[in-house]
Amino acid sequence: MYKAYLDNNIIVGIEDGDYSVEQFLNKNDYSYYFSQVHLEELLEAESNPKVSQEGRLNLIAKICGRNHILTGDDNKPEFFDKEPIEMYRIVAPLRQFLNPAVAVNQGNLLAKKVRQLFGFEAKQFNNESPEKVLSIIDAKMKEKLNLNIVSYLKETKAYNNSTIYHTLLQLINMANYWGDKDTSHSNVARLYDAEHAYFAQLCDVFVTNDKKLRMKIRAIYSFLDVKTKVIPVDDFLCD
Hints:
single chain, about 240 residues, alpha/beta, about 55% helix, about 10% strand
């Protein structure tokens, strides 16, 4: 049985009627997994009248059952047997302490300076294969800043938790590889993206309709030797 991790935009697409639950459940050789990030994004949308908290939890439960991925005692992602509503009741009271919106939006000026210093032209850089991206960034950081951050991460495996995903995704975005416009929303979304990629590493496929995110996560997975495939939903459903 293969394991699949659906990005939150796929869950929203099912709610919007772009896909049906049956299209996913009919892939009998796959089981689906959710993480606390799905629940954190749901909590962020609690003021949106178009989003039903109960409806979303029921949808996640219908697709994933009790297949949950959570950071374990050794600070690495592990599989757990937990219902979405059970984890929601744990995550919800912690929202005020975990809310990423209060911890971002401080790095936009730095990102602009780094992009100018690196001198990457977005359209040209976007043509590079994901497998080469972090090596290129590493070489540019050595040339311009005399820093060996990327090499250090690679050689020492300095972080064995989600921190390395946040660090690498931020570096990739600063270098403007399939970059997002820096806004309060994109900065928060980037935190969620890194967490989704971190948990999805335990699965065979990470399904997302965000092309920019696919390219960035492919670069990170290649760098970390993670074998998880990152694919769009149409490719997944037609496979």
